[in-house]
Amino acid sequence: xxxxxxxxxxxxxxxxxxxxxxxxxxxxxxxxxxxxxxxxxxxxxxxxxxxxxxxxxxxxxxxxxxxxxxxxxxxxxxxxxxxxxxxxxxxxxxxxxxxxxxxxxxxxxxxxxxxxxxxxxxxxxxxxxxxxxxxxxxxxxxxxxxxxxxxxxxxxxxxxxxxxxxxxxxxxxxxxxxxxxxxxxxxxxxxxxxxxxxxxxxxxxxxxxxxxxxxxxxxxxxxxxxxxxxxxxxxxxxxxxxxxxxxxxxxxxxxxxxxxxxxxxxxxxxxxxxxxxxxxxxxxxxxxxxxxxxxxxxxxxxxxxxxxxxxxxxxxxxxxxxxxxxxxxxxxxxxxxxxxxxxxxxxxxxxxxxxxxxxxxxxxxxxxxxxxxxxxxxxxxxxxxxxxxxxxxxxxxxxxxxxxxxxxxxxxxxxxxxxxxxxxxxxxxxxxxxxxxxxxxxxxxxxxxxxxxxxxxxxxxxxxxxxxxxxxxxxxxxxxxxxxxxxxxxxxxxxxxxxxxxxxxxxxxxxxxxxxxxxxxxxxxxxxxxxxxxxxxxxxxxxxxxxxxxxxxxxxxxxxxxxxxxx
Length: 567
Prior knowledge:
By secondary structure, the chain is mostly beta strands. It is about 5% helix and about 55% strand.
């Protein structure tokens, strides 16, 4: 056993012992949670299933948090023995150990955190430290963070540290140092009694910089790269108006082909809501905004300092959510989205006895209107390109037009119908070079029937039609709930490609369709704060996304078990 392993084990033991001793103190509280996902992999050459050398893989996490007055301490023990195939989104995780630990305390209006922490400035365009557990994204900071309430309505933040890079019997950190500061003013709080309006204006500003030593023998790279942002949020009982602008100095890195070009981003969102009506519109532009604490980061998922919010509807239905989801293009995009929600009242001609809900959504994303500078061997090439700010280019990356109608038919039946029309540049979004743009129509029927107050069935029928990529898909799902403890679900995804005898692959080659079923069954049991779920069947290769960040999921066949509990 190595000295490093011994030290990590001792650290974990001391941490757990300290929490146990603290729990014994009068007035303290200890709570936490545990979750694990395990899978046994079967060989299935028909779908190209991934079978790791170790046929059984498991991810597991256990969190403990102790609070006592103004003091808080917590930590997370993680285990990947080995990690599930395709997990995480970035570099591979290995072994078991402490992956997150911190202490936090408050003194008057000052809050101090030492160790790991998550934080976000504004919408995250210059800094967001966050975690998406099941996506496998975790760029937690490890260092010191200060929060200070200088005056009612004036909030200050500052931090310095390194980012979580991976996991190897414990967290590993990136080489770059990240530091930042943020200030925010809420006028309604600041002016207090002098502010008599129901409206409020919140303004904020952020500055973040990273340091990484320059060891490149051929290029002179900036060792300190700064980024700043300003934002404003105006709210009324009906309106919410938000805008933020971010600017980043030149940051040559592996994601932008080491060009010396500044980056910038601008987003604006507006929402209006009253009873029965909601309207939202938004637009943004991102230009050269990849911002990682290691300029040579191995994947686009590792060591990201910032987060660029997407402008595309986050679908929950299987086919649109996993086949053609949109992923933000940090190096350059211009996007817009608009959505209208309306509910016809009960008793009206269209509302009927129970009312009718309708939602219309439109979103798109284009390339930047840009011009390359210099030939491949020209020194001006290092400046990259010039752009017309907020002007879209000729190439459409993505378009989604969708409508959803939801209607309660009786006390026991509810139906929803959804239609989507997608344009999807799979070359850019998924990196499938040379593949044609996908044009798809998706139809979805969802139903819910309550047999009794405790027993119900929910079903989905989905169909995707396209002449590109893998052709047509059909999905059927039925989920039975027996409250309060049990649920059973069955689903089949069928890639039947076409009804014809041949399929024009990529619009070029005529092939015989390979029609595949992906059946899967699930059973679950819930009791108090504990949930068990077992699945068996096929999982097709695809894309799994959360909030515009995606990872590839390999095809698999086997038995999986998920357990979560809290205390």
